[in-house]
Request: fold
Amino acid sequence: MARLRLAVLISGRGTNLQSLIDACAEDDYPAEVGVVISNNPDAQGLERAARSGIPARTVDHRSFRDREAFERALDSALDEAETGLVCLAGFMRLLTPWFVERWRDRLINIHPSLLPAFPGLDTHARVLAAGARISGCTVHFVRDEMDRGPIVVQAAVPVVEGDDEARVAARVLAAEHRSYPLAVRLIAEGRVRVAGDRCVIEGEEEPGAALFSPSSPSGP
Ligand code: GRF
Reply:
């Protein structure tokens, strides 16, 4: 079967991009990274693409007169790369309804919280301030509203006493690096159907036991 062609959009360090590159290097993985596009010419993720021999392009938003012109350039780059699925991976530009509609159900994002809780920036600081004991990450299809859309994959991690932002971020990031390749695999295998505001996953198995935080080794 032909592999699903990904375009990964980044603005920064690109560790989620790296997790997708690594997954795509596996023989039986049903997707390949066709292009990496950054709006930031200094993004570290561009070097990751270069190291793996993946075509990389910078579409710098500052060199366009407005958001529409920027998105049209982005759109052309995606078409040229024969993109089947666009993966936002730390891409720090808001996308307009025109772009979101054009790539509807072919555009996914990863966010470092259990959506719909804690959308937006400074996620981990807000998780800590709220005293949440479980956080995590979400891969979802993109809709007009920021950090909203049908959820493909979520992973939960505990928040523990003594945590600071960096510790929560690291724990969540490790979960992100497994969640994004899983979500892309499910989509590439045709196992994800968008039904209104939610996703239906074909052949889903019942997951393991609940995650307790604080942990409860001997039951409640
Ligand atoms: C990740 O935490 C992701 O969830 C968020 O931006 C961060 C990007 O990190 N959208 P990286 O560039 O993939 O390392």
Remarks:
- The chain is about 30% helix and 25% strand.
- The radius of gyration is 18 Å.
